[in-house]
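Exercise 7. Given the encoded structure of a 42-residue chain, write a plausible sequence.
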């Protein structure tokens, strides 16, 4: 494993982590929005 391999893999891992955070953040935001939409109707 050379230094070049490490340089190529770190940004990829960073983008995968960022993508997961964005997806989980949007799911959480949608769930909270849904709670506030449904709660007043009960």
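Solution.
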């Amino acid at each position: 494993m050379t230094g070049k391999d490490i340089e190529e893999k770190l940004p990829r891992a960073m983008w995968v982590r960022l993508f997961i955070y964005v997806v989980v953040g949007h799911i959480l935001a949608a769930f909270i929005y849904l709670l506030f939409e449904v709660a007043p109707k009960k």
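Remark. The mean pLDDT is 84. Students should compare their own answers with the one above.
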